[in-house]
TrEMBL record:
Residues 438-485 form the LysM domain. It comes from Erythrobacter sanguineus. CDD domains: LysM. Pfam families: LysM, Peptidase_M48. Its cofactor is Zn(2+). GO terms for biological process: proteolysis involved in protein catabolic process. InterPro entries: LysM, Mito/Outer_Membr_Metalloprot, Peptidase_M48. This is Putative Zn-dependent protease. Residues 1-26 form the signal peptide. Keywords: Hydrolase, Metal-binding, Metalloprotease, Protease, Signal, Zinc. GO terms for cellular component: membrane. The keyword Thylakoid does not apply. One of its GO terms (molecular function) is metalloendopeptidase activity.
Length: 490
């Protein structure tokens, strides 16, 4: 929940997720029309909003390196004749994502970079995103984008899966607004594979190992499977509800297109040395997810997700997702009256012309915090759903709230979460320490098991270590090899 930024993007900004749709492809154009003035203006308009929505752009040596590699691969596309034609940003986000917008603006999150194992994989990811822009995939969807905001488009995808195309679909759409983890457009299978193909072409032109597209997709698939297991959900969770949809079905296709011969450079040692020390996971300044608990040391608050639900920390909201129900925790302007605040959230959720309002309103106290909540029942085709807004006053000018949607009669699944909201002490806030990537050299006697024990996690240490380093279940280590660890910053 980074900086509590409330950014709603207008039509036209078309983020292009690396881990999007999968499936059969088609012929790939070999050249690209250069960036037009209109595209450059569009990118410049939405660039600040995208930066804000994803926790801000990072600076320093890590960001400079990402920018260098990104510009080097982008010029292979023919979109621009000079490296200065492109803007490449490293985003302070804990989700695995990459995207681009027209005008030469390319983005990757730091979390996705930590999953990579060489420079060729970084170039592959950024090349894939440039491929979306070169093929004008977002423009092909411009008509839909003009009818809906980016979040609205995606929310419609999510709500139609959860609740069907109905009145509550619009509520689910608005609930999705603001969650950075939902910030992807669902490209067609053809478009995703076309971007893969273009990215492989760019790798070849730049002298990189063409197989890097397949290996980075394999790492992303392995991470997705591990995350699903650790969160207690099925790895085949619908794409709209995942921050990094499973790209497993694209791996073999990418490897086949790259060819059997390795060839080209990977620059593994250079890459690992340049990303050493990169922030990993949640930034404490944006709040952290610790198992089923969310803690924000700066805002001094904490809550616990219901059993069987998983959380994703977005820029303007924390999303809580489970089977058939979803919720978000966020902040909104507060004038000092909790009941008014709750009603305002119903109005915002229902839309400008909506009459959505709570059928009942209750005042209570939760762990010493003044609180209020309202419930509304909404028709959903042949069934109904309950919408709950539960708000808490932290100060005379500050309130936070949950918005939850669940099938009628089942909103009580969120009651333990509603009752878990609390202030945390200064000591608890001070105990929140960030994690960082540490690159180490394997010494004689080191094993996967011994190094994995240094990972800053209480469980699944070896599994996390293997996925982080693209090691198979039977792969071992050799002295002199460089590997990544996740450790607590000191």
């Amino acid at each position: 929940m980074a900086r509590i930024v409330r950014t709603i993007l207008a039509a036209g900004a078309a983020p292009l997720a690396l881990a999007g749709c999968m499936g059969a492809g088609a012929a790939v154009p070999s050249a690209s029309t250069p960036i037009t003035q209109q595209e450059a203006q569009m990118g410049a308009q939405y660039h600040p909003q995208l930066i804000a929505q994803f926790g801000g752009a990072m600076s320093g040596p890590h960001a400079a390196y990402i920018e260098q590699v990104g510009k080097n691969i982008a010029v292979q596309s023919g979109l621009g004749n000079a490296r200065e034609s492109f803007t490449v940003s490293l985003l302070n986000s804990p989700v695995h994502n990459a995207f681009a917008v027209p005008g030469g603006y390319i983005y990757t999150t730091r979390q996705l970079v930590t999953l990579m194992n060489n420079e060729a994989e970084l170039a592959a990811v950024l090349g894939h995103e440039v491929g979306h822009v070169a093929a004008r995939h977002s423009q092909r969807r411009q008509q839909a984008a003009q009818r809906n905001s980016v979040f609205g488009m995606l929310g419609a995808i999510g709500s139609s899966i959860l609740f069907g195309n109905s009145e509550i679909g619009q509520l689910g759409q608005r609930l999705a607004m603001g969650g950075a983890q939902f910030f992807t457009l669902k490209f067609s299978r053809k478009q995703e594979l076309e971007a893969d193909d273009l990215g492989i072409q760019y790798l070849s032109r730049a002298g990189y190992d063409r197989r890097a597209m397949g290996t980075v997709l394999a790492s992303l698939a392995a991470q997705n499977t591990l995350d699903a297991r650790l969160q207690g959900r099925n790895a085949s969770v619908p794409e709209w509800a995942s921050t990094h949809p499973d790209p497993a079905s694209r791996v073999q296709g990418a490897l086949a297109k790259a060819g059997a011969a390795a060839g080209g450079v990977t620059n593994r040692d250079t890459f690992l040395s340049r990303i050493d020390g990169l922030l990993y996971g949640d930034d404490p300044a944006q709040g952290i997810i610790d198992g089923s608990r969310f803690i924000h040391p700066d805002l001094r608050l904490s809550f616990t997700a219901p059993q069987g639900f998983y959380m994703v920390n977005g820029t303007s909201a924390v999303s809580i997702n489970g089977q058939g129900a979803q919720a978000q925790m966020k902040l909104a302007p507060y004038s000092g009256n909790l009941e008014t605040y709750v009603r305002q959230q119903f109005t915002a959720l229902g839309g400008q012309n909506s009459t959505l309002a709570p059928a009942q309103m209750e005042r209570t106290t939760v762990n010493g915090l003044p609180a209020a909540y309202g419930i509304a029942r909404v028709n959903n085709g042949n069934s109904q759903v309950d919408v709950v807004v539960f708000a808490y006053e932290f100060a005379r000018d500050r309130a936070f709230h949950f918005t939850a949607i669940a099938p009628a009669g089942r909103a009580a699944v969120f009651n333990p979460m509603f009752q878990s909201m609390s202030r945390i002490s200064q000591a608890e806030a001070g105990a929140v320490v960030p994690k960082r990537l540490q690159v180490v050299t394997v010494q004689r006697g080191d094993t996967v098991a011994s190094l994995a024990r240094r990972m800053a996690y209480p469980s699944a240490q070896e599994e996390r270590f293997r996925v982080l380093n693209a090691l198979g279940s039977r792969d071992g280590l050799v002295p002199g090899q460089t590997v990544k660890l996740v450790v607590r910053a000191r």
